[in-house]
Specification:
The structure is a homodimer of 254-residue chains. Chain A is of the alpha/beta class and 254 residues long. Helix content of chain A is 41%, strand content 15%. Chain A has an eight-stranded mixed beta sheet with strand order 3-2-1-4-5-6-7-8.
Amino acid sequence: MLQVVIIGSGNVAQHLIKAFSNNAEVQLKQVFARQPKCLLHLLPADKITGSYNEIVNADIYIIAVSDDAISEVSAQLPFNNRLVVHTSGSAALEAISNQNRRGVFYPLQTFSKNKAVDFTTIPICIESEFDEDFSTLKNLGYTLTKNVYEINSAQRQALHIAAVFVNNFTNHLYSIGSNICKENAISFDILRPLISETADKINTLNPLEAQTGPAVRNDNNTIQRHLDKLNDENQKDIYTLLTKSIQKAHEQKL
Amino acid sequence: MLQVVIIGSGNVAQHLIKAFSNNAEVQLKQVFARQPKCLLHLLPADKITGSYNEIVNADIYIIAVSDDAISEVSAQLPFNNRLVVHTSGSAALEAISNQNRRGVFYPLQTFSKNKAVDFTTIPICIESEFDEDFSTLKNLGYTLTKNVYEINSAQRQALHIAAVFVNNFTNHLYSIGSNICKENAISFDILRPLISETADKINTLNPLEAQTGPAVRNDNNTIQRHLDKLNDENQKDIYTLLTKSIQKAHEQKL
């Protein structure tokens, strides 16, 4: 059974704590948190420590803290030559102090405090400094999901950028849609089926083929009417830039 | 039983033909198409006409043609004072020639030729020039879906703009994500669960609350790293504009 220690108490740490607590193949031995009280709703007090010196032995140490804190936290671990991984999409493997064997265990999903996630559908991207640790990380990944991918640091950074586009920026477009509805006394519920279908469609069509709307039709009358109606300059700028970008992408296709 | 004639042979027309052909409460009497052959895979030849003079009597005439053609097509109908509606999200009710009683029957969904849609989940936005026609349109809508909304022309135009943001622009962000994956030899499959979850999340959280990522965290190191890594100027511009827009939206929230 793989023995795991988690270091951190934020969103990703808490989702991993929940996932490993219910996992028959993993023993979650301990969690380190600067404020141990934050985790008492998830774990018994004797499994939480706030002191680096009390960290116990384990096969894998998972640092789930903000990117900027990875170096500092990893440098404070009072041991050497153990397998220490971070969970970041954008930090390099080298962000971890080289006193230990380094790796990455990056679950590619959007984690919110108030929404449970189903780990079995989440892709986990792994990378290891030493070949001998790769299978350990792979095994740990497979205890959570079928989707384990070997992704190097350069690929992982590209993937994180792609994730910003398809997740963060997409969610912001939902937010703009919601604001436009609110300003016009329209229920946002009307847009929900469209949002689901848009996400669903690219499972059968590639996104370039799936593109519809006035931009790809070069329907300049509609585009101009939309720009005339929008009175928020920021929304206008986004509308203009994305319309041009769609048109450019489809010119290149021809 | 409501008797319907559809005018048009494009995407929306074909999806409506399929939906009404399987509908026990509606009699699809005829379809007008400039090129009747285009519809022979959907209808028997005697139900298709290419001549305005052969159009039969019906309760509702649905013009499902491109926005620019609505005026011309509606002006050529060889009858008066019947209920004629268009299916456009952005054309005004007045785009229809005033020789007939005008209305709008706008199914808010993204229709692709190669993907079936489930009409029972699609919102239909209706509007009528005369009160007496409103219930006819409402009844027609309810034969397809539970989600029938009364939406006036100004609201419909706003809704169409909101739909461009949450559908057309979102799909384009998927396309950019897919390109970034391709350039880095990463399977786009890794992003699919994230895309689904992003769309699903806003059914339980509002989009402003659901926002995650470097922009909303004001994580300028990550933002700068991403911009340094992107080498497509257009992708850089989109990244910069949407990052600023997310930050503005969250400043306003505070």
